[in-house]
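Can anyone check this?
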Amino acid sequence: MADIIPIHQKRTFSLEEARAVLPIVRRITERSSDSYRMVRTRLDAVRRDPSECVRFEERLHDIVVDWVESMRRLGCEARGLWIVDFDRGDGFYCWKYPEEDIMYFHDYDGGFSARIPLESLNPVQEEEVL
């Protein structure tokens, strides 16, 4: 029987829970990224037509807004284009498309540029994270 994933809730994740949700996050993100890339290519092709540009720019905006909302419904936080944070109570597990797994952590004050590989944490931090 499949696990039930709660939606529409801000939540904290253990590493195991974040990894359980990751396939859904990845699938949604991949679909959104592919759509974004396709629309962006079409936008680049019509740059001389302002009305067409506006239409494609609005579509790009809608793709990102829909993706952010999907992440929020799963209890995750979209932190940048195709970057997802999973709150663990004292910081975030951090994932960026197309990474295969959740391999990074950063505290609440840090961001994507401050993320630390999980395997490089000292033993005390690792116990806290894992």
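Reply from J.R.: I decoded it. The chain has a mean pLDDT of 88.
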